[in-house]
Amino acid sequence: xxxxxxxxxxxKRCSCLLSDDVASSTxxxxxYDAAMPNMWYCRVNAGTGSHRWLAYDYxxxxxxxxxxxxxxxxxxxxxxxxIASFQGRFYFNESADMIGTLDFAGDGGDETxxxxxxxxxxxxxxxxxxxxxxxxxxxxxxxxxxxxxVFYTLPCLDTPTGFAVYRMDFSEPAWRxxxxxGDRVFLLQGEHNASSxxxxxECGLRRNLVYWVNSRVDVTCLYVFDLDDGGITTVQPCxxxxxxxxxxxxxxxxxxxxxx
Length: 260
Description:
2% helix; 260 residues; globular; mainly beta; 2 domains; 4-stranded antiparallel sheet; 5-stranded mixed sheet
């Protein structure tokens, strides 16, 4: 990474995604800064001389945020917030009625270009009421693209009031609400809206569940969303540890390996 001439920010600000299955000839690694519109890309299976990190700045528009006094709004550049990889392409929430796309064209060498596009896709429906808000997550699982919403009623961010899971219908395109994700569980965490999935039967878990860690509050709680009956269960797995936690909790998944 030193060859890019950039200093990678503290890892609490950065997230990392694979674009595709690691065996794919087009698989690449994307690292992006959650605070600034900067990203780094490396083609995993690039040819000789093309296996390197490339640095990019990007522009996906601006947004208004409160200043330090919370009395005025200032304009800042948007960064990737809800983002997932699917079949070699990256997808991210761009606006209320549009999903952005990101591809890298080239062999992984210096001439590799970042290419942005968009898809007209309406945002999922929020519950009725003027104070509804949501944490949003996007993830690939089992060859499909999903969108998960955890709903709140403002100003309370301690306890979710509901949840919903949507599957992308690329023929429209549109998000289709679903109550069945099969023999899978989704694992969500608040920091950088990260998400992943695993096979329930292989991990000894019940199918059709969504696990979410609320890192907005001082006391870390694990919520289990049951798609079969719509129920929400609260678990406190970190009792006895100091609060607040030294860093937000995160999921760790075992890597798959094949013996020769």
